[in-house]
Amino acid sequence: MPAELTGLTSVGLIPKESPVLLKKGGKSLQIGIPKERSSQEKRIVLTPESVGLLANNDIEVMVESGAGIQAKFKDQDYADAGAKIVYSRKEVLAADVVLKVEAPSEDEIADMSPGACLISALQLEKQTPEFIKALNEKKITAVAFEYLEDKVGGMPVVRAMAEIAGSTVMLIAAEYLSSVNEGKGLILGGITGVPPTQVVIIGAGTVAEYAARTALGLGASIKVFDNHIYKLRRIKQLLGQQIYTSTIDNFSLSQALAEADVVIGALRAEKGRNKIVVTEEMVANMIHGSIIIDVGIDQGGCIETSRMTTHDEPTYQVHDIIHYCVPNIASRVARTASYSLSNIFTPIILQMNDLGGAEEMIFNYKWFLRGVYTYRGSLTNAFLAKKFGINHKELQLLLAARY
After folding, report:
1. How many CA atoms lie within 13 A of 343 on its CB side?
2. C-beta atoms surrounding 402 within 10 Å
């Protein structure tokens, strides 16, 4: 992000009347934030503080009543910041730019304005060809925020949610190791005279880094597996201490899993869906009562026995091994996650307003362009095209033809 746009969400909440909306051509950029329909999704993309800043920059923000309630933000908080609180889902979805966490349903897409911009998660494992068709029929420009990049090639939303998931995942493991939840009756970590908990982390990215920090802080013994040597080297440097690291091979991984109390699946898919690296046979050889947490389940997971679960029913057992496979772990700490998302999207919306809309963002910023998967009636993501058997068009060629 440009240096002048950093730290934008730190301003205080200033009660104010509805802003006077002025913009190029007499029309303000209009942002719609609908209430998430899934009971599993508790986050919201913009906090009241961010809405106040956008309102001060002549951006109209419509918030559906109750949209922030799960993250402990009241309608009045948004109204005081300058948002328009609306009670009609259709009105919010008719905005120029719709900001969501979860991908919209086909019913929600039907209520969106033709040619509008959608910014949300794509949630690849949940999508169908009908979803893509619905977007294209409305000529929606859809942007997957997990594919957005920053100026140095990082993925800010993925990084932020991974930090939260990694920090939270060990707390989840501690819950299910306890006797209260019919676990092994172990403390996560260790105390004097008692061997430490054995934690295996598969993957060496951001989730792994923060999970490892938490586990080490509690006194656990950790082993980290990844097939990229540079990632293994980096995680050792980031943690600042010598830890067990290994490339992923069946023998070493099987041995580690057989002794593990906690297994964290933290591999991130590089081209679409994750590869399975932990077979059902490996799971069957684990100590009964151990816990597996597959953080990458929204991309298929890396453990053969993993299947997606929910916050309402987060666990199941296979071979007496507890499996926790909730895709949106960050939603457990919805307020923290909402502030994190807001810090990322507030500067993006300000840039979009300055340029005059989403179309100009795509044309001017490659990091924004990388998130686009449908554009004006065409699928532009090659992996989605292959997955669903749909023809796609290269976005760069579409832009070249248009401009």
Report:
1. 14
2. 11
Q: 150 in helix, strand or coil?
A: coil
Calpha distance 338→45 (Å, rounded): 6
Report the distance separating Cα 94 and Cα 89, nearest Å.
9
Residue 389 predicted with pLDDT over 50: yes
Res 352: pLDDT: 94
Question: Which stretch of 78-82, 323-327, 390-394 has the lowest confidence by average pLDDT?
Answer: 390-394
Helix (H, G, I), strand (E, B) or coil at 77: helix
| Residue entry with tokens 């905005």 | 95
Q: pLDDT digit string (tens) for 20-58?
A: 333 444 467 999 999 999 888 999 999 999 999 999 999
Interatomic CA distance for residues 92 and 96, integer angstroms:
9
pTM of the entire predicted model: 0.85
- The Cα–Cα gap between 64 and 51 comes to 13
- The span from the CA of 350 to the CA of 359, in Å, is 14
CA distance linking residue 265 with residue 200, whole number of Å: 9
Q: Which helix (H) or strand (E) holds 208?
A: helix 206-218
Residue 124: burial class (beta carbons within 10 Å; 0-12, 13-18, 19+): buried
Instruction: Work out the number of other CB atoms within 10 angstroms of the CB of residue 246.
Output: 15
pLDDT digits (tens, 9 = 90+) for 107-141: 999 999 999 999 999 877 778 899 999 999 999 99
Query: How far is 22 from 43, CA to CA, in rounded Å?
Result: 30
Angle between helices 229-239 and 206-218 (to 10 degrees): 40
Largest CA distance in the chain: 73
Kindly list the strands in the beta sheet with 97-99, ordered across the sheet, starting from the edge strand earlier in the chain.
Answer: 84-86, 60-64, 30-33, 97-99, 117-120, 141-144, 372-375, 378-379
- Distance between CA atoms of residues 351 and 364, nearest Å: 10
Contacts of 297 (CB under 8 A, 6+ apart): 125, 265, 306, 307, 308, 309, 325, 326, 327
Q: Extract the tokens encoding 96.
A: 């120029």
Q: Running DSSP on this structure, what letter comes out for residue 245?
A: E
Across 139-197, the runs of DSSP E, i.e. the strands, are: 141-144
CA distances from 348 to 150, 335, 356, 365 (A): 11, 20, 12, 11
CA distance 265 to 202: 5
